Amino acid sequence: MDACSNTPQEGFDSTWTWTAAVGVITLLVTTYFSVEQLRKRKKTAEAKRLKPDYDLLDEVVVVVGKLEALPAQKADLALLNELRSRVKQAERRAPDLPFGDVVARIDVYQKTMLPDCFGKKLAGKRVALDELLELSRQQGAALTEIRAACDAVQLDIDRRTT
User: What's the distance, Cα to Cα, between the start and end of the chain in Å?
Assistant: First the structure.
């Protein structure tokens, strides 16, 4: 009994209780799916925004593959230099991705260039064979590091967009 009205207090009607429970569950499920849809849209937008940068890294890997087949000189670096500039632009667009590591690895590779006309210098014995072999080894290691840096960035992009 209620102290003020002297009338017996009645509980909730079971119809109202079930209606309220179904309403709350419906609200929760609808909210969950709305949030999930919003998250998917954000990931899709992020994937669309990062697609050109992902493709750029594919181009870098292709050029690195071509450079692996030859002892690179400065003349052979024109395309790699262009791609390096584009990777720097990608770094500015997405500073939270490790594009800077790719640029740094390309810079290291550029420091391992063989001297111009190294074949003539080698034939004329004006440059030591050991020096050229060491530069060639450094080139191979630098190319591997460029490829690994590209793979790391692409993996990071994949994690964010899937």
Answer: 60
